[in-house]
């Protein structure tokens, strides 16, 4: 029959948390604070129970009907059952609690209002789809490696959805599934080009005639290619930016092997936020760690900063140099290499930096954070996509003569629990 529990809050990772009468914590997805649920135990751990909500006995007024027919099956979105305003409120609460649990010393005024996404739907410009050996295409199921076949994604842009539907109906998928394990769908923001990149299974190669046949059969796709063993296949995507705080219009280009924000419109707001928090940078020296293809390096250089960018992905760092030259800031310096190694070398070879910006992957930058104090910078801007690793790294930095003076959440991924945020730290 199952048991009932009252959901107290949503925690990092998107789980609803409740407590049984004996104090045991129950974690369940697709629930809301204030709801009473009937749940079924999935797995019992030492300190909590992983549960599945079987029935919502007392729904929250913030509960809405999910837009996606695959919701709760597909492992992508997990907040579609939550009204838009409540999604943002819950994300703010998650950040606040994560900071408190991390014992970060900060005043309440440090947490700034969330920057909302221009679009709550149809914002995603990159999809990575799985392909089964039998030719079924979709995403991994929630908390599983099993495939959930889909032909539509409401958070993806309309052009991507047209391509997704057309590809899902292709008679070539069963033949491609024998050698291809994944498929990337990419939508270029500036020119609306749709690119498809096929990812072969380990030890397999995609028959060129099959890739060519797929390309010829798709009216909604501009280019189909197979990624090589290094994950590369040439093809450019581009985003144009208005003048804004950077001072004049510019554009960025990247290849499918480079990291780029999937929410292009919100990325423009993110760049504006970073420039605003950086303050006047003309004539100052800026170190941009995990700089990628120059998403922040180029606008900072346009604003007058002397920028040194560090990035391990050689394809991205090459594109960053090209983007800087196209923007007229060719004097910007880019270093291809490991960020940790670069941080150990830079204090011996460079004058002090005025500002360090870092935008690490989801795993954060714990070891890098421990070295930042050695640079003696006045300001550190930390762009994070994971509150838990951000809190861990902020604890390191705030114990090293820095104070957290501003933290601004950015709703980069509506309909999901994921949270982008920008933290400003200033030397004491």
What does this structure look like?
The protein is α/β, with parallel strands linked by helices. Helix content is about 25%, strand content about 30%. The protein is built from ten helices and 20 strands. The protein has helices spanning about 85-100, 160-170, 175, 210-215, 265-280, 295-300, 315-325, 340-350, 365-370, 385-400, and strands spanning about 5-10, 15-20, 25-30, 35-45, 50-60, 125-130, 135-140, 145-150, 180-185, 195-200, 225, 235-240, 250-255, 285-290, 305-310, 335, 355-360, 380-385, 400-410, 420-425. Strands 16-15-14-17-18-20-19 form a seven-stranded mixed sheet, with helices on both faces. A six-stranded mixed sheet has the order 8-7-6-9-10-11. Strands 1-2-3-5-4 form a five-stranded mixed barrel. The termini are far apart.
Descriptors for this entry?
alpha/beta; single chain; OB fold (Dihydrolipoamide Acetyltransferase, E2P); 6-stranded mixed beta sheet; globular; about 425 residues; Rossmann fold
User: CATH architecture of the largest domain, please?
Assistant: 3-Layer(aba) Sandwich
Beta-strand residue fraction: 25-35%
End-to-end separation in angstroms reads 57 Å
Name the strands of the widest sheet in spatial order.
16-15-14-17-18-20-19
Described by the principal axes of the CA atoms, the overall outline is: globular
* Helical segment count: 10
Which stretches are low in confidence, meaning pLDDT under 50 for 5 or more residues running?
A: none
Structural class: alpha/beta
Helix content: 25-40%
Q: Could you describe the largest sheet, including whether it forms a barrel?
A: 7 strands, mixed
Rg calc: 23 Å
Total E-strand runs? 20
The run of helices and strands is: EEEEEHEEEHHEEHEEEHEHEHEHEHEHEE
Q: What is the typical, i.e. mean, pLDDT?
A: 93
Provide the CATH superfamily of the largest domain.
Answer: Vaccinia Virus protein VP39
CATH class of the largest domain: Alpha Beta
Q: What count of domains describes the coordinates?
A: 3
CATH fold type of the largest domain: Rossmann fold
């Amino acid at each position: 029959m199952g048991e009932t529990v009252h959901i107290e809050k949503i925690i990092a990772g998107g789980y609803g948390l409740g407590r049984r009468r004996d104090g045991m914590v129950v974690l369940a997805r697709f629930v809301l604070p204030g709801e009473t649920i009937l749940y079924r135990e999935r797995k019992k751990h030492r300190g909590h129970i992983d549960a599945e909500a079987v029935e919502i006995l007392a729904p929250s007024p913030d509960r809405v009907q999910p837009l996606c027919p695959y919701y709760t099956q597909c492992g992508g979105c997990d907040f579609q059952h939550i009204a838009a305003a409540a999604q943002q409120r819950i994300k703010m609460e998650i950040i606040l609690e994560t900071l408190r649990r991390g014992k970060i010393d900060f005043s309440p005024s440090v947490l700034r209002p969330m920057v909302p996404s221009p679009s709550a739907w149809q914002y995603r410009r990159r999809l990575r789809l799985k392909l089964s050996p039998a030719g079924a295409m979709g995403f991994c199921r929630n908390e599983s490696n099993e495939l959930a076949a889909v032909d539509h994604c409401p958070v993806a842009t309309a052009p991507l959805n047209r391509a997704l539907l057309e590809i899902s109906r292709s008679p070539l998928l069963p033949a491609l599934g024998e050698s291809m394990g994944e498929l990337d769908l990419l939508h270029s923001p500036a020119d609306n080009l749709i690119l498809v990149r096929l990812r072969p299974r380990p030890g397999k190669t995609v028959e060129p005639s099959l890739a060519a046949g797929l390309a010829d059969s798709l009216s909604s796709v501009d280019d189909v290619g197979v990624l090589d063993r290094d994950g590369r296949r040439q093809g450019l995507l581009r985003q144009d930016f208005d003048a804004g705080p950077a001072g004049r219009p510019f554009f960025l280009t990247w290849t499918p092997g480079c990291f780029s924000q999937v929410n292009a419109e919100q990325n423009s707001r993110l760049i504006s936020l970073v420039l605003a928090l950086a303050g006047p940078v003309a004539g100052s020296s800026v170190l941009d760690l995990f700089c990628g293809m120059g998403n922040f390096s180029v606008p900072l250089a346009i604003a007058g900063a002397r920028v040194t960018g560090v990035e391990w992905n050689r394809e991205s760092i090459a594109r960053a140099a090209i983007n800087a030259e196209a923007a007229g800031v060719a004097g910007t310096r880019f270093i291809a290499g490991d960020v940790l190694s670069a941080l150990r070398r830079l204090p011996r070879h460079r004058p002090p930096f005025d500002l360090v910006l870092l935008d690490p992957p989801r795993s954060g930058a714990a070891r890098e954070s421990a070295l930042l104090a050695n640079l003696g910078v006045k300001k550190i801007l930390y762009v994070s996509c994971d509150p838990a690793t951000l809190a861990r790294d902020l604890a390191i930095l705030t114990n090293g003569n820095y104070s957290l003076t501003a933290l601004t959440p950015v709703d980069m991924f509506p309909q999901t629990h994921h949270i982008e945020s920008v933290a400003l730290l200033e030397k004491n």
